Amino acid sequence: MSAVLLHFHDLAGRGVLITGGGTGIGAALTSAFAAQGARIAFIDIAVEESRALAKELSATSEHPVHFIEADLSDVFAAQAAVKEAAALLGRLDVLINNAARDDRQDLETVSEADWDGSLAVNLKPVFFTSQAAVPFMREQGGGAIVNFSSIAFMLNMGELPAYATAKAGILGLTKSLAGRLGPDNIRVNAILPGMIVTERQKRLWLTDASIAAMIERQCLKRMLVAEDLVGPTLFLASSASAAMTAQWIIVDGGIL
Ligand SMILES: NC(=O)c1ccc[n+]([C@@H]2O[C@H](COP(=O)([O-])OP(=O)(O)OC[C@H]3O[C@@H](n4cnc5c(N)ncnc54)[C@H](O)[C@@H]3O)[C@@H](O)[C@H]2O)c1
């Protein structure tokens, strides 16, 4: 089903912040939330693509779509960006922690700086953006946080030690935040994508052969794309999942 056809009425007018919303899966999410009539801001470092997306969506959406340039590995910048988003949107109801970097690492050569750099993008901001968003969600009487993990940490992928550690850590963090924030009616869930074929993935890591091999492992015999994450994310952000927290959804076409 096309993402545009999905409609979660309660998302109209909500304040939604998406990290890494300028390209890839994040861009599909930004577009989909805009199509719901939500008020959107997204944080990214990909300036050119993000400006173009914000301009395009602002021209066709009910509310302006705000791009905030910030490096999420800088905690101060990340938290300042969350506060800026809440001010621009007038409210903050939904936080989608989607930004990541799946750099490959070699066991023999990975340095302390490489390790810290990966966790600084892939794990640390998930906590600190949430910490900054919570006061604004409390003002609304609740909210929803959706954290992007990955099935990669369960596939024994030897070239992703820090990324796999971060993505597994996100599940622990999701459950801890859910426990802490449930009394505030703030729900915290996670999504684990499988192999999602984006332009960046094709440019950096994927080949026709590796895509075919992954499809072979999937129950569903087709390529998964960014738009396949839209339905599950809208669902976890909306009141359709009002009684769900501390959970995760695997969107991998049936690999696991
Ligand atoms: N594509 C896949 O196959 C796949 C599979 C499993 C999980 N995931 C997860 O889904 C999410 C989205 O994946 P994607 O493939 O679209 O990722 P991507 O790398 O293409 O995009 C991530 C976005 O985050 C932004 N970003 C990166 N570092 C940043 C920083 N320091 N500060 C601000 N923004 C930053 C990038 O510019 C980009 O727009 C990620 O969490 C990823 O780990 C993706």
Automatic annotation (TrEMBL):
Protein name (Swiss-Prot/TrEMBL): NAD(P)-dependent dehydrogenase (Short-subunit alcohol dehydrogenase family)
UniProt source species: Neorhizobium huautlense
Keyword annotations of the record: Oxidoreductase
Family: Belongs to the short-chain dehydrogenases/reductases (SDR) family.
InterPro entries assigned to the protein according to its UniProt record, in alphabetical order: NAD(P)-bd_dom_sf, Sc_DH/Rdtase_CS, SDR_fam
